[in-house]
Amino acid sequence: MKSKIVYIFITVITLVLAACTKLKDDSYGQVISEKYNPKTEQEVSYLVNAAYVPWRETMLLWNGVVRAQELCADQDVLPARPNGWVDGGIYKRWHLHTWTTDDDSALQPWVRTYTGINTCNRLLSQIEEGIIIVNGDIKEGLVSELKVLRASYYYILVDLYGNVPIVTDFKDVSLPKQSARKEVFDFVVSEISQNIDKLSETARGYYYGRINKWGAYTLLAKMYLNAEVWTGTPRWTDCITACDKVIDFAGKTGEYALESNQKDVFRTANENSKEIIFALPFDEIYVTDWNAFDFHLYTLASESQQTYNFTNTPWGGVCVIPQFIGSFDPEDIRLKENFISGQQYKASGEILTRADNGKPFAYLKDVPSIDKSDITDGYRWGKFEYATGITNRLSNDWPMFRYADILMMKAEALLRSGQPGAGALISQVRQRAFKNNPGKATVTDDQLKGGSVYDYGRRDENRSTQEGGGDITYGRLLDELGWEFTQEGRRRQDMIRFGVFSSKSWFSHDATKNRNRDLYPIPNSARLTNSNLQQNPGY
Amino acid sequence: MMSKLRSGLAGLIRHLMCLITGLYLLAVQGYAQEKVNVSGKVLDEKGAAIIGATIIVKGSKGNGASTDESGRFTLPGLVPDAVLVVSYLGYQTREIPLKGRKSLSISLVEDSRLLEDVVIIGYGTQKKGDVTSSVASVRPENFAQGAIKDVGQLIQGKVAGLAVSNPSGDPTSTTQFRLRGTNTIGGANTAPLVLIDGVPGSINTVAPEDVESVDVLKDGSAAAIYGTRGTNGVIFVTTKKSKGGETNQVDYNGYMSTSRILKKPDLLNATEFAALYPNEDHGASTEWLDEIMRTPFTQVHNLSLRGGASSTNYIVNLNSNSSEGIMLKSANETFQGRTEVTHKMFDDKLQVKVGFLGKKNKFESTANSGSFSGYTYRQALLRNPTDPVKNADGSWYENLSKFEYENPVARLEESYGDVKNTEVRFNGGLTFNPVRDLTLSGVMSYVEQKRNHGYSETLNHASARRDGFAGWSSVGASARSESLVELTALYNKQINRHKMSFLGGYSYNGVDFEDMYFSNFGFQDDQFGGWHNIGIGSALKEGKADANSHKWTTNLIGFFGRATYSFDDRYLLMASLRYEGASQLWGTDNEWGAFPAVSLGWRITREPFMKDQNVLDDLKLRIGYGVTGSQPVNGFLGVAMLKYDKFAYVNGKWVQTIVPASNPNPDLKWEEKKETNIGLDFSLLKNRLSGSIDAYNRNVDGLLYEYSVPVPPNLYNKTWANGGTMQNRGIEVLLSGVPVTAKNFDWHTNVTFSTNSNKLKSLDGSVFKTQFDYFNTGWLAEPVKTESHRVQAGERIGNFWGFKVVDIDENGKWIYEGADGTRIAYNDFSRAPEEKQIIGNGLPKWYAGWNNNFRYKNFDLAITMRGAFGFQIINEARMYYENAKNSRMENRLKSVNDPVFGKTTLSKDIDPEFNSYYVEDGDYWKVDNILLGYTFNKLGKHIKSLRLYTSVLNALVITGYKGVDPEVNAEALNPGYDNRDQYPSIRSFTFGAGIKF
């Protein structure tokens, strides 16, 4: 009996030990890479399209490029609100150009663009190694597309940070070395130029939201437009050539054109707009980051929830600098359509009232200062349509590049290179803005060469100075860019090109006279992880 | 330890109760015997007089005497066959039948039972005298009593080095534990391993009323036998047992309790608010906190039945706990039954143990999948006191277009749901002694935990009225099962003065978890929909609601061995090794890790040169070194994994993209904690004073954390890796004493004291390199929106990182001290991250506890006190509710009118921010538990004893801290953060009874 029990006991132990030394390797919801072998074109597209996702995040996620381009510029400000918006002073520092190397404003665009670059590098490497199997005929196009896509992320980096590492080899695990701004510029231009002919010419359909040949030309035009600032050498002719490629294609096929109403570019369902050349698609259901695209929540006051029946209470937020509003022609349709102003109404049509005192709720033009504002102070962003009943995210696609920009880039290049024709191009874009008074749509080359009507100067409740914009070379063209492209995440780039970013004052911002602030600093945390990175001058 | 003796004595007396009573009755009723005067002397083994020994005449009430300075006593008027019970602390109690003698010389033998006391160590027990590492035990007589939430509260303040805190008054919350400081920044094991009779569980697995004792393995040399799970120490919870051959016994314990908020935040009332904000006066006068609070009623009943014969024993324990919280609709109801049967067979060579625990828990839910929402409490604090609760027509008074502003009463009344937990634990064990000295055992257990939750908001809730989430509801369930198999073989041998033991074993621990969750809204009404019919809302159909499920499995496999050796009970040695593999490390190059430990003990009092001293009863020096570890929380970090990521728009359709899941790190390995412990156990003056002192030094190497890395070349800017090193050092002191012991009065006291100093030595490790020497953590929500803590190399964990204010100017604006030490005016201060500095630390530098048990005749009184010192608290409530700008026009604390730094009130232009003005010293001393009881022995024929008691928990708090309770969260990397939404702490009052049948 005794021995039998010992025997059973030992047997049990032996069996258990043999069977139970295996560590669990069952993964649920994720797949071990080695076990996943994509083959079909569809499967490949699941992998490849991941490279586009960082673009929308680069622009629009919290403290993304839209803020990096707008909150430091002369159109928009995010003042302290009753709801908050102090956030350790980050928005104020943006406005005053006193951001620091630790600020989120410097960090987020860096992190997100390099995520995009890295994804492109990974996919290129996987395609090359055959880990991702792509058929020969589409392989070349796909590789080119990924290379230009990668270059497009560098476009953001060369603009915001200038001197950044160029990384193209996914397998190289050494710490990346920094390149000078000009080298980055040359890299982008050369990548686009070398690959552009292999890109698809299809305007929409499969290529909606992707880099096609026309998106690539627009990007190239952007590079040349800013070449003088970024490299010291102007490239106006190259800019015109690139724009003409798109204009010719648009003329021949009708695939791209100006919308007859500017507002139609920014509708909730804008994915069929012919004006859009490169879109970043959004959808309130499928794009699930909380702050994916939330202009409505971060510009409007809480009360406005009742106007649009949002499923979330807005906590706005950002508003328009009164001086910018003052620069508009009162008959400009864009003044009415791109901003939310005046008395607000509930969805039912009743008058909207303030939550605190029950008085009628109206967005007013004036704002006391960056440090102080009432819930109703300042006109609000209204360029993108806010659909009734939407969630915390908009479904409007983001027009990263649009046809009006092609026309205006060409106009600027013509004007700056002393060639005629800018006025006609700008007038073309202005027509839809002055439908009620078509005479006002026309602007001449000479007018464009004149000064800005923006009434620059420090202008808040604490201090008021008069600087004006009359002295700005091509100031009127800068105004035109401002009126057309407000809220599109680019004002800083335009202001730098016209030399006013550091030379003028507006609202609570005093002119810094410091060109070093034309570049954001290399984020401190990036330098802490990569000792090769030198800080930009002046930080 | 003294109390242990006392309980032993009590046990002895109880066992003899019948006999005594019988004899007594016989004596008084029977024959009128001749009375004699008895005198005598009480001596110790060496013949020295024992002063203060107690002599009681058995069966008499109060008839007794104490010995004088020469050890003498006299007792008049005894019957010749009386029996004397002679006792003295630290000595074995003797019963001396008079047998007609009138003069006695009684010698008492020193009671070595204290040292013979058995202490639980990993996979076995050891005599206390043989223990070579730091082990603490808490016995029932030292347990806190009253409305005890869980086992943690039983032993709060009683184990030096074990910080138990209870920061929440929510009846569904549990206590928090930290042993010897914070030892990891990202490892899986953050809390001590809790073993319920050897099977992993949690601190609230068994009802506190069902606990027999709690033992704590503190140092690494003791815990290393548990490998990774033991890295933060091991807490053994031993449930009540039936003892062999015991007569059947039935115990009932029950109590009723009520509680109140520990300290009510002092908010402006309607009049004061209207005076400050006349434009916001809405006419009513509402004490919003009172509107959501109540006087709760809690009742707990515990019934245990124990019995058996010499071969079979059983215990059945039933426990019902119905607790109400101070907030409306916050409660917790648990019913559990536990049974354990042990049976000996084959000439007692085989012992079979079968245990079962079933538990059903349910609580009301006014928060999504939780109990009570902190947001509701927040709304009660900040709501305008001139707002009425309801409109004249009976509907809720709301003002929903105001940002983040909801009627808290409506939030409670317009939401409903519940959370149900069920748990079933089976465990079985076989212990087999095939030959003398050899013990083979197998333990198997299976635990199944299920949770179901459902929650709905009505169409009248703010979510529907404001956000269009009509009838927002959620429903979910989870199931977790854990199985454990442990096989051990133990060989004990004693050859003359050589004692040795060898243990070998195998352990398999597997966990399987799965859950699912749905939310929905767009219900047409409140009658047909809600969480019990989740599918009928419209949002799921439109893709606007959530549906998700998860599953994961892990296992942990260990082989272990341990040897002990002692010579002459004088030189003691213990060495152990555990070789362990964790599934979380599967695919790395280091799946398995080895965790060795060694400890030595020297019982100095057994040395010949100590023979002649008689001050020290026992003195033992211990020294130990042990390695334990922690695996990462998540699995598959060593290999390249793919996951579904975000959607991309392809050809008119949104498709799920597939991307790498993380930066694979095949070098990932165990985080290792190497601990040295030096300790001294002592007892002196015949055990009147005893205690232990321990000093430890913990070095944690290869800290697991998600470190920042550059992108590119990495895929993601965070990688799980083994980085830097951290050190924890400290001293722990436990002193137990019996200042007074007399016939009618005893005073037992013990003091615990512990220090902890923590230092993150580096984030840069030998395997993983980083330039980062810090990262920020913790979060203060909007409108402040900033990280609150910084973890930095060279500093302690728990540092607050914010702006330092040193003064206020005449306009009521802060004057800061910049990072360079200069004073900076408010308007000149950049508020940039670079201006932040260390402005406090949330981890207490030292803890103390002082526990007292008094007995006067049949009364017993216990007063336990404890405190934590040398730390600061971020008073978030003040940061928000003392801000004078109050741009949202919400209610404020009365202190909003107080001058800052005694100078002037804060300017109305100043936005709320995180600065040092809201950092307060958290030092506190709590009179934690006051307990007064009275015991009736032998009531009537059936009742063996009846004890009635009343107690107060959290009775008195002495602190300079202005918030509700200075006992705030001390866990994770943001200790000392007093969340403004925290369910407030409570003070509870209890009346209870214990009956033994």
Automatic annotation (TrEMBL), chain A:
Segments traversing the membrane: none
Domain SusD-like N-terminal: start-end pairs: 95-225
Keywords, in A-Z order: Cell outer membrane, Membrane, Signal
Annotated InterPro entries: SusD-like_N, SusD_RagB_dom, TPR-like_helical_dom_sf
Organism per entry: Pararcticibacter amylolyticus
The keyword Signal is annotated on this UniProt entry: yes
RagB/SusD domain boundaries: 274-539
Main location: membrane
Region (Disordered): 438-471, 518-539
Protein family membership: Belongs to the SusD family.
Compositionally biased spans, kind Polar residues: 526-539
PROSITE patterns xref list: PROKAR_LIPOPROTEIN
Organismal lineage: Bacteria, Pseudomonadati, Bacteroidota, Sphingobacteriia, Sphingobacteriales
The keyword Nucleus appears for this protein: no
Matching Gene3D superfamilies: 1.25.40.390
GO CC aspect terms: cell outer membrane
Protein name: RagB/SusD family nutrient uptake outer membrane protein
Subcellular location: Cell outer membrane
Coiled coil: none
